[in-house]
Amino acid sequence: MKRDFDILFVDQTGELGGAELCLAEVAFRLRHRSSVLLFEAGPFQRLLEERGIKTILLQDQPRSQSRRVFRGTKEIGKKSKLGAYFFFLPAFVRLLFGTLRAARAFDLLYANTAKALIVTALVSRVLRKPFLFHLHDIIDADHFAPLNRWLLVNAANHATGIIANSEATARAYQKAGGHNRNLKVLPNGFDIERFGARTEEEIWATRSAICSEDQFLVGLFGRITKWKGQKVLIRALSRLQAVSVVIVGDALFTDEDRQYKQELVDLVRQLGLEDRVHFAGFQQDVLPFLEAVDIVVHCSIFPEPFGRVIVEAQLAGKPVIAARGGAAPEIVEDGVSGILVAPGDSVGLASAIESLLRDPARAGQMAAKGRELAEQHYALDGVLRNWVDFIDQSIRGVSTNTRATTLPYSVHGRSGAAVARGLTNVRAERRPMRLAIVHDYLIQMGGAERVVAAMAEAFPEAPIYTSVTDYDHLLPEFIGKDIRNNWINRLPGSRRHFKKLFPLYPFAFRSMPRVDADIVWISSSGFAKWIQVTDSAKTVCYCYTPPRFFWSPDTYLNREFKGAVLKTAATVFLTALRTWDFQCAQGIGQFVAISRCVQQRILDCYGRSSIVVYPPVNVDRFAVTARGGDYYLVLSRLVGYKRIDLAIQAFNQLGKKLVIIGDGPDRSRLQTLAGPTISFLGRLNDSETKLYLEGCRGLVFPGLEDFGIAPVEAQACGRPVIAFAGGGALETVIDGENGVLFNELSPGSLAGAVQRCEKIGWDAETIRTNAERFSREVFLERMRAVLQAVSRSEPEPTARLAEKTAFSLG
Ligand code: UDP
Ligand code: GLC
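Above: the input record for the complex with uridine-5'-diphosphate. Below: its predicted structure, written as tokens.
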């Protein structure tokens, strides 16, 4: 019979912070097989006991208060330095022994806070019991002193598994050196039923106790501590008329917090805002206040790890303004389900409040969207199910001696393993294929990185070798993955100047240890294929293009290098790079091109044949809708070679409406060309772009692209594409069926195509069907087939010499 494992949750505080409220939910669900060990008494313990959850209390204060040198661990804060630990030691030892004693009776330990993690990691080591860590903090320099960061990351790396409360906390952990791969991002869950149950009268009663009827009421919820940024709102308030603020929450943890609270009171007095700021103190139940306010703001000046109060505000149906940082952008889509402002910017906050106050209809729409999305993502039942599953899988993983890293990883419930179905047994029936991924750099999360993300999700076990990683902006698929950077990553400024460092990349990839795997899948438009692999490894190179700056160097040379000497030196270096790159290309087992146009370039440059697998487009994001706009659309970065100038001239001639989404160095030049029917919207977020795509009459795509994602996205909305007949468009646009091709790079030719487009009766569903050929599933299926074929093929051909090369080695 399957036995339930007993769990000991460990939490350092007795207060009611967000991490504790979060833990209370899972401890309640698992109350029959768990206890919560606390390092101090307080309201948290009372809450647990009221809910029938067993608690064990370890008092870490010495019995004799006179021996001041033996301080309690409470005095060790996130920012404490080494010296503080000296005083903390006796108390720590007491905690350690207490936890050791308590933990013997349990199968799994579960640390819910940072201090609890350090104790739990040691205890689990001694008792040889597995432990999980719930990461509620952003481990960065804003929140923690260096020593504490080091301790935390090291302890967390030894955990059987980690639950991160957001992608932001998971990214920060990886950036700080965290490499635990059994990591799951799981947001907090909320009991939706509790929200919206109060009557108008009750709401009114709460509200009128705070401010008069003519005031607009802004709520700020959360404990009072400097990084939660209460001062930012008070300063914003001094710029606003007829607005009152209620601050709900109290200083919970440290003397510094209490001092900050005093500073708030003083600031309110100084600014003469006493009658417009109401301190409500800590509320056992914040709901009456949440429902009484008009909007909720969240002002953390450091990145917020999750931010329960943001979700609670959305569930209460309130428009939210949150500080852009940490997990806030994961919860609030700017301009759609709330507003994001710069952290610490009281002027920006004041104008955001004013914009909502002036436009109640927009505020209402955002609130409704916020509530809808919050109900979808944060409903308690779903979150708890994933949470309990993860705990159980982790214990089972250990007890059946499976390595923790084989567990599926998922973000907000999306399972990477599901996508990987059928992928493990490529080579032999019993042994899973070992795949390694190599990519140039994980810096800008552009098209190539989305391809790598799809592979990383499909092959969760594959290590990813690269040069530099920007952990702050990693796509969610990369969270918890085994990313191995080379030494460029350690160079100061390498993230900002990653392009300028190009001469170093070949050497950096060469200096990495040989990659050992069955198949090494190399994704590259740069130097990743310079990596070396072991003799038995086979290689597949997914090629976006041979590096342009040395295979079509003329434009590059003229642009980047001034002066004859520099130009000559650069020419010599680029020629050498070309020679080496050519040689590297000969060592690749199988080239795969992103389009036929790149296939030709691979043949021209490397003399190598290749097969075409189109890159994945997220067609599921789009739908055919009845939305009918009267405009054509350009969706593009505004750079010269995209030839947006042609579109502008054509639409000037036609006098038809053209909307241009995107930004770039060419924008001001293009704006001077544009007539009255053309509008520039700049960069928009994904949801806004989607709305424009779904409503356009057609997408205009005048440039020459190797593939081109935007045309497929427009087609996924059932909209035709007007494209220049060249490059990747020839493969995605079928004239008369899902778009119109024009043959000359001239405004006249483009204008003719627009007129032709208007004469055709388009069938949106046919257009959409074409786009589905480029879905992520199709990409993965084809890539899987390539890997299977390669794994069955003969051992790697040794460097083949090309029959045909586009340059001379001499
Ligand atoms: N909260 C509360 N009473 C208060 C103020 C806040 O119960 O007076 C709750 C709030 O509803 C939220 C939690 O405390 O659930 C704070 O969690 P959050 O994640 O926003 O921030 P944390 O304090 O954990 O950093
Ligand atoms: C921590 C974080 C907070 C988060 C909470 C629950 O207290 O500061 O942002 O919402 O944990 O995960």
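Notes for the reader.
DSSP finds 30 helices and 28 strands in the chain.
The pocket of alpha-D-glucopyranose (ligand 2) is lined by residues 17-19, 22, 136, 165, 188, 304-308 (CB under 6 Å).
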